[in-house]
Design brief:
about 210 residues; single chain; eight-stranded mixed sheet; six-stranded parallel sheet; alpha/beta; 24 strands
Amino acid sequence: MTAKSIAILGASGHGKVLAELAELNGYQRIEFYDDAWPVKCQLEHWLIIGDTNDLFVNLADYDACIVAIGNNSIRLNKLELLRDKQAPLVSLIHPSAIVSSYCQLGLGSVVMANAVINPFSQLGLGCIVNTGSVVEHDCVLGDAVHLSPNAALAGGCQLGDCVWMGIGSVTKQLISIGTGTTIGAGSVVINDIANNCIAMGTPAKSLKSTAIDS
């Protein structure tokens, strides 16, 4: 019987976690691709066998493919390229996570140990629901959102694309956080936050814009 195989794009600390998660999901052949190849050829005991372009060429060799890049915008870009090439994108869920059968989880997303996603939440392409984080009922997350460990969204929150919730940050119910915004570690969000901001504190306040000047 042929070993179940997965290609992971991005050989980093996040990649290590996804490799173990892939093992827990029954993948026996796990191979990495990273744009630092061939200078970087190994991640712990896993081999790095090429860069992004090599992965494009070798997609037919794998049962599954996922992107392990922590930077939200880069992860989204790589996922969109792979989707356009009809890569066999999958999501990975840790056995200890609780994911409602009534939620929608976008391709290329990962749900880590002890995370919870409750009914009728919707998550876009390539989201990271990290260790112990919570997405309550009826939340809507855009593409490439990252909830860091122990972040928690109360019910009915809406997060735009590429939002990053720092470790231990929380929101009250029905909050909106704009595209490209970062919420600092341990922050408490009780009011809506605009696009492309860095916000932190209790209550969280916008400190500066991350928008690129034209």
